[in-house]
């Protein structure tokens, strides 16, 4: 089997100003440092890293400066899109090296990782927590997919286009998911729709395509499916997603791995030197 192309996804970094903690308890900068160290040491190396929004916590200039200092340690190529905690214009300034699809408005981006096409969609709505893909973004997406109809495509955005069952987060998801589905329906090469926002690993299908939410490197949204508690966080094991694309017929095959961040015992062999099960 040919080795897969690996695309790492990290999300919801929520970087504060130096010395500050998110929600007065989570050291998000230290969490990102651990995540970056894990990515730098991961083997085989991912070809690319996608960061799906909420890079900073309050959209402040000082937060973006701190974020860039931290990301400078990442040894892998990467690109980012904003989330609802970001401030779009400051985000654009911080990541001015990215070849955005337009000079203003949504910070959409296409990245070519041969033979893959990564399409990063800006679902942020300035001043709002919910997400939406405006008409220009949907036209751009349709055009990019049409122009690369023979290449597998992975779509990334911040706001999930589906409900998770966590009510207070579902009220903030993508408001015009049917319009996204209508575009995807015309392009069978789409292999994945990957979001962030919920700080939990979630998998489902959307418009007949595998869809996922990336876990966060810092804290998780409480898995309260009965709406019994106020909106809350939990400090759970941090993680990221590793999307592995395998070449094959019909635009190949996509497998997503949940990767815990940190050092854990192992690996330990299943068999002894003579091939006997231990």
Q: Topology, pairings included?
A:
Blueprint: E1 5-10, H1 28-41, E2 48-52, H2 61-71, E3 78-81, H3 88-94, E4 109-113, E5 116-121, H4 135-147, E6 153-157, H5 167-170, H6 177-185, E7 190-195, E8 202-206, E9 209-213, E10 220-221, E11 233-234, E12 239-246, E13 253-260
Parallel strand pairs: 1-2, 2-3, 5-6, 6-7, 7-9
Antiparallel strand pairs: 1-12, 4-5, 8-9, 10-11, 12-13
Mean pLDDT: 97
- State the secondary-structure class: alpha/beta
Q: In whole angstroms, how far apart are the ends? A: 28 Å
Unreliable stretches covering 5 or more consecutive residues: none
In the CATH hierarchy, what is the architecture at level 2? 4-Layer Sandwich
**CATH topology group:** Purple Acid Phosphatase, chain A, domain 2
Q: In oligomeric terms, what are we looking at?
A: single chain
Number of domains: 1
Q: Main β-sheet, in a few words? A: 6 strands, mixed
Share of helical residues = 10-25%
Shape: globular
Q: Strands of the largest sheet, in order across it? A: 4-5-6-7-9-8
CATH superfamily descriptor:
Metallo-dependent phosphatases
| Number of distinct beta strands | 13
Order of helices and strands: EHEHEHEEHEHHEEEEEEE
- At the first level of CATH, the class is Alpha Beta
Radius of gyration: 19 Å
> In percent, how much strand structure appears in the residues?
15-25%
- What is the count of helical runs? 6
Explain what the structure shows:
By secondary structure, the protein is α/β, with parallel strands linked by helices. It has one domain (5-260): Purple Acid Phosphatase, chain A, domain 2. Helix content is 21%, strand content 24%. The chain contains 6 helices and 13 strands. The mean pLDDT is 97.
